[in-house]
Structures are given as C-alpha cells and as structure tokens.
Write a structure and sequence with these properties.
transmembrane; transmembrane helix; receptor; alpha/beta; disordered C terminus; 34 strands; about 1050 residues; disordered N terminus
Length: about 1050
C-alpha cells in the first residue's frame, strides 16, 4: 500500500471515527451505566437536556425521541450516585458484607423516556432493582412514581417538589430528599410578609404540575397573611409570544404592584425578563422560586440586569460533598471506559476523543452488560441547538488526555443543592438496608416485630424501613422523612445584587433551564454567602448573596424566617425598601376603610372615632380607650383624663373667694355700724334683733361659697346642704317678717290675730320656726339620700368631672320649694309696701333683693344642667354670691350709708316730717279719689262730705288746749253735730292735720287717714293740734311715735 493510499485510509478512518462518536454521543444515544452489587439501585438522570423527534411520518418505523443537548447537571448527579455507592461500599461501619450496585439510565428530561427506562429497569432488566433514585423534574417524576407504585418499589426523588406527589394512594411508594412546594410557598409568603410595605403582589406561574399547586398554595397563604393578589397569571411551557406579551401588559397596568412572585422555569422567566426590559419595566422586584433563583444567566444585558437587580429568591441549601471535588478532578476518559466521562470531557474542552484512545482504554470494567458502559444509538442528527442549550459539534481538534477538570471545572460543580440531595438519597437507602441487617426480633418493623430477610428483600419491606429511617449525615444534620415522605423545609434566602461579581462561566452559559437547575450547579464562597467562580470574572453580571434562611421547623416558635435586611441591595444598589401597596399605609390614629368592589388591601384611611385609638400602622380597627382615659390629639395612645373640679387655685375660684371675702367683710362692717348706732331711728326702725340675725345669716351665706371649693368629698358635699339652704331660708324668713310688719303698721289691714307679731321676741321666734321647717327637710334628705362626691368619666372627652351628686330628687325639690314660697310671699309684701316714706323704703329695697334672688335662680337652672365639673360648682357659687350680694347691697348698705354719711337723715325730727309728708300725700290721694267719685268742689263747705260711720276728730279751739272727741259709739247725727259745732255751719275747712286711727267697730274696720286744716275766723284764734285716737289704736301709735310723732293722747 502506497503512502498516499495509507494517508487516504487513515483520513477516512478518522472521519468515520468522528462521525461515529457524534452519532453515538449527540444524535440521541440512550445511555446505560451499570455496576454490579448485592443490592442494585436504579438511577434516572437527565444526561441529556431534551429530546428531538427526527421523523414523525411513520414512513420508516415508529416515532422515536432523540436525546440532544448534553446536560452538565445530569452528568454530575449521576457521578454523585456512583461516588456515594463507592464510598458506602468502602466503609466498614455500614452494610457489612453487602455491596451496593447501580443501574443508571438517561431519561433526557422526557416523560416518555422516563417511563420507557423505568419499565426496562423493572421488567426487562436481568437484575432486580430494589429502589430507584430520580427522575428530575416534577412532571417526569409523577409519571415514574405512579408506575413504581404498582410494584411497591421505593422511589426517592432529589428534585421533584410539587405537592401533588403527597397523594399517599397514587404515589404510595414515593419519598423525596427535598421539601415539597408547600414549604416553598410558606417560605416565600414569610419572605414577602417580612416587609411591612409589601401587601399588593402579582403571581406568575408555569401551568404544569409544578407551577399550579405552588401558585395556588402561595395565594391561599398570602391572603391569610393579609397580602392581596394584584394579578394572577399561569403560562404554559413553550407558550406563544402573544401570551407572554399579555402577561407583560398586565404587569405594566399594575404599577403599584412592585413585587412579582414567579414560579417559573428558566425558559419562561428568561422570556418574561427580556420583554420587561424591552418595555423598560425595571422598577419591579422579582421573587424567585427555587427553580430559577440561581439562574443569573437570564440577565445577560444591561436592561435585563436592571430588571432583575434587587430580586429575592429561595434556594435549597448547598453542601460541598466531602471528597467529591477530588473524585471529579481525577476522572479521565483515557484511563477508564466511561462514555459519560468522555462526553463531559469533549464538551468541557471542545475537543473530540480519538478512536485510538477509545480502543486502548482499560477494559477492567468490560463485559457484556456487566460493569460496562453501553451505548445504544437510535438516530442521527447533523446539527442541533435547542432552547439555548449548547450541543457539542464534532471538531477535528482531538483531546490529548492532558486536560483536567481541575483547570476548568471547580467547586461550582461539586456543591449543588441537588447533588447533595442525590447523595442523601443513596445514604437513606443504605441506612435502611443497614437497619434491616441489624434488625432483631421482636424489634422489627414488620407485623409481630419480625424482621425482613435482607437476601430475599421485598420492595415493600424496604419501603417500610425507608419511611422510618433515621440517621445523621456527614454534616451532622438529622435526616428523616415526615408523614408526607419529604424532609424538612429548609431554604436559603438570596438577593440578586449588581456589582463586580464572580459567577461560574459554564453555569452562566450552559444553564438548561430545568426546574431543578440541572446545568447550573452554583457554589457558595467560604463565607457561605456569595456565588463565585475563580476561573472567570464578569463584572457586569449579577451576584447572588445569601441574606437569610427559612426553617419550617421553627415556625411554631415564630422564628421560621431569619433574614438580615441590612444585607439586601435593591434597585441601583439602593438600601431603601421599595413599596408594593394598593393604598398608602394608614398612619397610627387612623384605620382602614373598606372600598366597595376592591380587595381588602385597597382602602381609604379613616380617622379613629372619638374615644378610640390605634398605635399600629394599617390598623383595621380602633380600640376604645379604657374608662378614665382619653386619646391624645393624634389618637395613637390613651392618656389619663384629668380630674376637673373647682380647685382652690383656679382663677374663677380665686375670684369667687375674693368676692365672698369682701361680702363677709362688708357684712361685718355693717354689723359693727348697727351695733354702734343701735339707738338711732334708722336702726330702731329696722328692728335691731332681726337685723343682727339677718347679718349673721348673710355671713353664713358668704361662707357657704367656700364649701364649694376644692376637691369634693362626701363630707364636703354634706356640709354644703345645711350651709346653703338654712342660711338662705333664715334670710328670706327675716325679710318676710319685716315686710309683714311694715304692711301691718301702715295699712292696718292685718287681722287682730296678727298683731302679736309686732313684738320683737315673737318675730325672732317666727323666723326660727320657719328656718326649723327647712332644717327638718334638710335632715330628712341627708338621712334618705345624702349627697356624695361622684366621678363622671364619660361626659367629656378628656375630663373626669368630680361633683357633688345632688340630683333633683323629691327631698331637694321640697327644700328648694320651701325657700321659694317664703321668698315669694316676702316679695309680695314688699311690693305692696314699696311706697312708704323714705325712711320706710326698706320694702322697696327688699323688693329689689327678692327680684334679683329669683332672677339668679332662673338663670341658675339652665346653667346648672348645661354644665359639668367646675362650671357646675361655679354656677352654685355665683348663685350664692348673687343672692347674698343682693341682700347686702339692697338692704343693709343703704341703711349703713344713711347712718355713716347722712346723719341728718337719721334724726327723730326728720323721721316725723317724712312720715307726715307721706301721710299728707296719701290722704290727698284718697280725698282726690273721693272728690272724683262725688263730683264735688275741691274746697269743702260743709261736713256733709264726711262719710257716715267715720271717726270725726274734734279739734279744740279753746285757749286752754282741751279737746273733745266724738263718742266711741258711732252716731251719724251726733258726728254731724260735733263737726258743725267744731267748725260752724258756714266755716270753710280743708284737710290739714294727719291722724292715723284704727277704727275698732264692727261697722267699719278701715284705717281712716285724712287731713284737716282749720281756717280760723280771726288772727287771734288759737288752734290746738293735738291728735286724738281711740285706745284700740295704741299699738299703731307706738310705732308712729317711734318715728317722731310724740305725745299722742288716747281716750
């Protein structure tokens, strides 16, 4: 063979080898990786990211799916399973004398492929599989779990989180090492409600077995916590752009809903973010579910980073599996016959494995379907790039074998939440088997305490022990399955921040968008906080920072969510928490008011009603202040009401006490004046005994003002009653006796039985009797219903009124009426005698005093009932002062003024002259009235005009001064005779002399007052002006004499 022919042959062989490798690896190869052992664990992983149908015409055979897009995540998870099995087999403390094997299948993220491989494992497989780990996302896992439940084969999922798998009948053999989405929904609700200004959010979910239950659970829990849903949208996987645009429109139309909760896969959230960036909707905060919370590759442009900056999310805690990093770095396709490693090698270093390398690999693991890696090619595809995932294209650059994963793949590949969950699943099976090997009767879990035979183990027996497994992982965490077949709901809370970020390059470029983040296997730094990749820096990318943790086991202790709000960075690296509310928050002091037709988060703020408060923001109701308290001006807190009464230091009280003191001082001065001038006509005419008693009572009236001052007590309330009522009753009783006496003297119309009242001692007695009657009423009132100090806390807003509770019951009305009746009678007498002589004008002033007294009472009642507290007490004080000052100023001060400043009016001569002057005026008025009645001339010419039956005074004109008078028995003819004899038949006479006589006959009881003027016939005539009255008029004459009419003679 020539050299040229050899070269052609070599090139042809190389081309065929490259085509062979491409067909096997990337054109739909179905991969099976097996390792023998005493107990085989099945593994279902997404070694390819998706499937592709080459021919659906059925012209060349049945429709088949071709697996495309090598998956980094699926490769790593499969390697974790093999690593865990090797680690357990090399341990001496667990599963002694029993080795584990595995049978790993590629399900290509396809439900049909998953069911096909599962059926092959359970039916067509030569070796029985005792348990299955897989199969990725919720959709494929639900199909496989239902199939395995038929055989009671335990299935442990490392990524399926849908709560629909909790059905114990449909998925009776299903367990998982991840929490279900109910815990995730709880974690996201706790996250949203941890911000006070987030109660108006939108929800977007994927319309499948993952998104529907999760969004529904979040909605229910959020509403229970007071969060309202502004928009609720579900979109189908791979939906049209129009549907996505409709969702964007609804986000745009709800500008107040700043928070959007997204239960989406990578594909869907990437499309949402792209269109939000195109619409410049960059002010929203995205809350990510664990399906995409680490998929930072969705923010590849500046606008997309503006959309996603500040986003929050929940992610399953990542764990660096001890030794797995070194295990991955030691893998080399030139040293072992493992097709998965070859595929990962060619994808990582963008090279092709030479055929010679494949032919010269060690065959220590070789053998027909035992300890071998088998490749089954189903179809050919020339070039595939699907959904943004890179499919390796054959290249003429050959792999040298000198490459190393350590130079390209770092810790980010060895620390994924789902890698750790695969690791847990393998160890859970191992510990369940170990519990079976250590089981002793009667401690077994089977019926009767029996133990299963590990060498003849039934799948349902292993399921029983798996459900009760309890162990501690390599990190010291307690692991067990709950009643729903899952582990505890623990999540890390992350924040997407902009800045100089280190992200895993391969993760950012190769994310396959699966709900379990199959391609993006992120890593935390040594501080367990920032996603890093030492291989490549991307300053323009998003960094993911851990800001807290959620643990559902701590919810009962109100410590489920622990978050450091200070570590959160929002839009434009701002630290101010954005607001997502339908309505602005109601400040303390206001409550929410319902708006008809709107969710409860949309409301109006209404000020709390009187007497109620709220010190919370966004309060739904106001709390009534306890009795004795009142809201402050802002209605945010209850403060104690202040006690109101007429305090001693109150300005009104001080003014009233000054007035009362002046009244007492004035009364004392008047009393001293009366005592000093007690023998003067004015004092004598005022009845000295009654006047002194009157002034004493008046002083008590002024003193009663002080009983209304200060904080009321029961004793003080009781003292007020006798002071006020008895003193006023005595005052008006004295005035009644005075007016009655004056009227008796000057009108002489009181019956004979009333004349005894003219004696001073009897007048005092009458006053005391009248006052005693009031005392009896007061005593009965104090015994039956004594007044007491009462608090009134509910009358005014900020005040508690402390008053003497003297309600207007029957006794107090009788007490008031008693005084009013005496005062009314006194006013009547005083009014009738108001026109007496000037020195008898006490009746006129008594009238004024009584009028002021009644006016004070008339104004007192509306004021009293219309006020409370100190103003009510002030009304009583003003009543006391007005009445007391009326008596002082109208009755005592005028007399005192005459005594001190008008002494010439306080003489006997002046009293006599004023008395005669008053009598003359009254007689003239009487005679004028008579003349008008008889139509006679003003000048009398005969005695015929003197009425029959009257006493005719005979004035003696003799020089001896003797006088005669008509007999006491009335005789009309004799009266005329005496008058003719006295004056003559033709003598003219006019009224000139004042005589007051009381006629004591049965025919007439009138007081006859007339004036007689004698015109003498000659200048030498002498007229004697001696008054003559019957003896029966002695009492009246004594009173007249005291006013200046001395030396009266009596028959």
């Amino acid at each position: 063979m020539t050299a040229s022919q050899f070269n052609i042959l070599v090139n042809h062989r190389i081309t065929c080898m490259i085509l062979y490798v491409y067909l096997v690896l990337y054109a739909g190869a179905s991969i099976v990786v097996r390792h023998d052992g005493d107990f085989i664990i099945g593994g279902l992983f997404n070694l390819h990211s998706s499937t592709y149908i080459v021919d659906d015409t059925l012209s060349r055979g049945p429709i088949e799916e071709t697996c495309v897009g090598f998956s980094w995540g699926g490769f790593l998870r499969s390697q974790v399973m093999t690593y865990a099995v090797d680690e357990i087999n090399n341990r001496s403390d667990i599963l002694c004398n029993i080795t584990l094997g595995y049978d790993i299948r590629d399900v290509c993220s396809s439900t049909s492929k998953s069911l096909s491989e599962t059926f092959d494992l359970m039916v067509r497989n030569e070796v029985q599989v005792g348990a299955v780990i897989g199969a990725g996302g919720s959709d494929t896992t639900m199909a496989v779990a239902e199939l395995l439940s038929v055989y009671n084969v335990p299935m442990l999922s490392y990524a399926a989180t849908t709560s629909m798998l909790d059905d114990p009948v449909k998925y009776k053999s299903f367990l998982r090492t991840v929490p279900n989405d109910i815990h995730q929904a709880n974690a996201m609700v706790e996250l949203v409600t941890s911000f006070d200004d987030w109660n108006w959010v939108g929800i977007i979910g994927i319309d499948n077995f993952y998104g529907r239950p999760a969004t529904a659970e979040f909605e229910v829990l959020a509403k229970k916590r007071g969060v309202c849903i502004a928009l609720y949208e579900l979109i189908l996987p791979n939906c049209s752009d129009d549907i996505v645009d409709d969702v964007i429109d609804k986000i745009y139309e709800n500008p107040s809903a700043k928070v959007i909760v997204a239960f989406l896969y990578w594909d869907e959230i990437s499309r949402i973010v792209q269109r939000m960036a195109l619409r410049n909707i960059t002010d929203r905060i995205l809350v990510a579910s664990e399906a995409w919370s680490m998929s930072t590759s969705i923010a590849s442009t500046e606008l997309e980073r503006q959309v996603t900056e500040g986003s929050l999310g929940v992610v399953l805690p990542a764990r660096n599996i001890p030794g797995f990093y070194d295990y991955i770095n030691k893998l080399n396709p030139f040293n072992e016959n493992n097709i998965l490693v070859s595929a990962a090698w060619e994808t990582a270093f963008n090279c092709s494995m030479p055929m010679t390398a494949k032919e010269t690999r060690p065959t220590t693991q070789g053998g027909a379907r035992n300890n071998t890696a088998e490749i089954m090619t189903s179809s050919v595809e020339s070039h595939i790039q699907h959904s943004g995932y890179i499919t390796h294209i054959p290249t003429t650059v050959y792999c040298s074998g000198e490459e190393s994963f350590s130079t390209h793949l770092n810790d980010s590949l060895s620390s994924s939440a789902f890698l750790y969950r695969v690791y847990l699943a393998v160890y859970a099976i191992a510990h369940a088997l170990d519990d079976i090997t250590r089981c002793e009767y009667p401690d077994g879990l089977l019926s009767g305490g029996t133990c299963p035979d590990v060498w003849n183990l039934k799948p349902w027996q292993l399921l029983k022990y798996l459900q009760n497994v309890n162990f501690t992982d390599v990190f010291g965490h307690h692991i067990s399955f709950d009643d729903d077949g899952g582990v505890g709901g623990v999540y890390d809370i992350v924040n997407w921040q902009n800045g100089n970020t280190k992200v895993p390059a391969k993760c950012a470029l190769m994310d396959d968008g699966q709900s379990d983040m199959s391609n993006c296997e992120p890593s935390w730094d040594e501080n367990d906080s920032i996603l890093v990749d030492e291989s490549k820096e991307h300053p323009e990318y998003i960094q993911v920072v851990k800001i807290g943790r959620y643990d559902h086991r701590q919810i009962s202790m109100n410590n489920g969510l622990q978050i450091n709000h200070g570590d959160i960075t929002w839009k434009n690296s701002c630290k101010t928490i954005p607001t997502s509310r339908c309505s602005a928050p109601c400040d303390p002091g206001k409550r929410k008011g319902i708006l008809s037709g709107f969710p409860t988060c949309c409301y109006e703020c209404i000020t709390c009603s009187e007497g109620t408060i709220t010190n919370d923001t966004d309060s739904t109701d106001c709390t009534k202040c306890p009795e004795g308290t009142w809201p402050n001006d802002e209605q945010t807190m209850c403060k104690d009401k202040y006690l109101e009464y007429l305090a001693w230091d109150n300005p009104e009280a001080i003014a009233c006490m000054v007035l009362a003191g002046l009244g007492i001082l004035a009364t004392v001065i008047v009393m001293a004046t009366f005592l000093k001038f007690r023998n003067t006509p004015v004092v004598k005419a005022s009845n000295r005994e009654l006047s002194l008693l009157f002034m004493g009572s008046l002083i008590v009236c002024f003193l009663s003002v002080f009983s209304c001052m200060g904080e009321p007590t029961n004793t003080q309330c009781v003292i007020q009653v006798p002071l006020r009522s008895l003193s006023f009753t005595m005052c008006v009783s004295i005035l009644l006796v005075k007016t009655h006496q004056i009227m008796t003297v000057f009108e002489s119309k009181v019956p004979r039985a009333g004349r005894c009242l003219f004696k001073a001692q009897l007048q005092v007695f009458v006053v005391l009797v009248l006052t005693a009657g009031q005392g009896i009423v007061v005593f009965l009132w104090l015994c039956l219903n004594p007044p007491k100090a009462v608090y009134f806390p509910n009358i005014a807003k900020e005040v508690i009124y402390l008053e003497c509770d003297s309600d207007f019951s029957a006794p107090i009305l009788v007490m008031f009426a008693y005084t009013w009746v005496i005062a009314a009678v006194c006013l009547g007498f005083a009014f009738r005698t108001r026109k007496l002589p000037e020195n008898f004008n006490e009746s006129k002033f008594i009238t004024f005093a009584m009028v002021i007294y009644f006016m004070a009472w008339l104004t007192y009642f509306p004021s009293y009932f219309g006020t409370n507290g100190r103003f009510k007490a002030l009304c009583q004080v003003i009543l006391l002062l007005a009445s007391s000052y009326a008596m002082l100023l109208c009755i005592l001060i005028p007399k005192c003024f005459v005594i001190l400043f008008k002494p010439h009016l306080n003489t006997t001569e002046y009293v006599r002259s004023t008395t005669l002057s008053h009598a003359n005026r009254r007689a003239s008025a009487v005679m004028d009235t008579r003349r008008r009645k008889s139509m006679i001339n003003p000048v009398l010419t005969s005695t015929e005009n003197i009425e029959d039956g009257e006493n005719c005074l005979h004035v003696d004109t003799d020089n001896d001064g003797k006088s005669t008078q008509s007999p006491s028995e009335p005789n009309h003819n004799q009266h005329r005779h005496h008058c003719r004899q006295l004056f003559g038949e033709n003598n003219e006479f006019t009224l000139s002399q004042v005589v007051i006589c009381h006629h004591d006959t049965e025919l007439d009881s009138k007081v006859n007052v007339f004036r007689v003027r004698i015109i003498p016939p000659s200048p030498q005539s002498h007229i004697s002006r001696t008054t003559m009255c019957p003896a029966s008029a002695r009492d009246s004459i004594e009173l007249v004499a005291s006013h200046g009419l001395d030396n009266p003679t009596f028959s």
